[in-house]
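Teaching assistant here, posting this on the class forum so everyone can see the example we discussed in section. The complex has two components, and the goal was to see what a joint structure prediction looks like when all of them are supplied at once.
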Amino acid sequence: MLEISASDQYLTASADVGLLDIYDALPSGLYPPFPPVELPGGLGGLVSRGGFAQTFFFGAEVLGLTFTAPSGRQVVAGGRTVKNVQGYDLTRPFVGSFGALGHAETVTLRLRPGLASAHHSRPGTLEEAREDLMASRARFVWQDGDTLHACHFGHVREVQAAMEQFGGAPDLARPDHRAAFAGGMGVGEGGPLRDLRFGWQDGGAVPTMPALFARVAASL
Amino acid sequence: MLEISASDQYLTASADVGLLDIYDALPSGLYPPFPPVELPGGLGGLVSRGGFAQTFFFGAEVLGLTFTAPSGRQVVAGGRTVKNVQGYDLTRPFVGSFGALGHAETVTLRLRPGLASAHHSRPGTLEEAREDLMASRARFVWQDGDTLHACHFGHVREVQAAMEQFGGAPDLARPDHRAAFAGGMGVGEGGPLRDLRFGWQDGGAVPTMPALFARVAASL
């Protein structure tokens, strides 16, 4: 299931829909809060891990979701528009909970408009370029092996400025990284991908969960 | 306590600091996620109610907080920068929980830059102007009695455009609304203030809490 509302700028999709399937389905000029790569677990996996490569707060882009809690309870959280968020919010704690709150069934994402978009890559590592990249205007920045990537969408001049600042050359590839994470996309050093939050390695390791969050998870 | 980091664009303050005290303390060119009005409970009250008058997702502007849960437990949630949000997030459920998760001790808010700012008012009601205001570019829109207010900050031309669209005339007042909510700032019709989410009336009434959110609150 994949429904797109261009007028209200959101999409609702089954959690198992692939990230590149979403790119293929979107009308021109509307963009999702992730770069054009395929990652394990599709949209649901992405939300469970708290996004990939973004330089903004990913949680605000998830407008609502339905999920099955560890107890088996079906949970409906959030809404479909930015302006109807009214409080008592169970959407945001699910985002980046690495499975602790259960697994998503459907996800509603905010879409954002852009008159232009670009994806550049160049040799380099996040570690050596970290300060530059923290100040980057690009919406997405990540490292794949020894190559750095930056993506941006928005006004034409804003996209040009972000790409000039980053350097490199246009990259039209839309890589499928699923084979590199046969055991699950986990957090840790030495893996094939890295963004400003985490190194991502095969095996599905999750960050240490605070005890209080475990209490919340057990309550659902 | 009120600490401002202009370079990292955040502030951390005691929950009881007033909203206008924050305006007074900010350097020029940096703005908080609320308009220049005083409301009951200061910063902590504002966060507990999920903000006031914003046309954006207020939860993303609260980078972290410390709060006392109903159990008496002290909770430290979130961080101080946008890019260190790592998941297992207990900040966002607190925002707009109307006291169900306890009361805030300190709050860290994102600040945003603006080269210009403006506040206009004009006769009118949100009900009759709702469609126009939903499409408004103004960051804050609210109704006080029979008067509509709009505030914006950002680039000079963006501020001009938002105020031209809204109409009215510049309003330099920074009203203190606390006396109108002697029994607490609650949700409901017929009160003195209204924004795109709620009518706000004296007495401290809260929206109906979903049963599942009550389970989360009891777990903390």
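For the discussion questions: The CA atoms of residues 50 and 95 of chain A lie 5 Å apart. Chain A has a mean pLDDT of 93. Think about how each of these relates to the inputs above.
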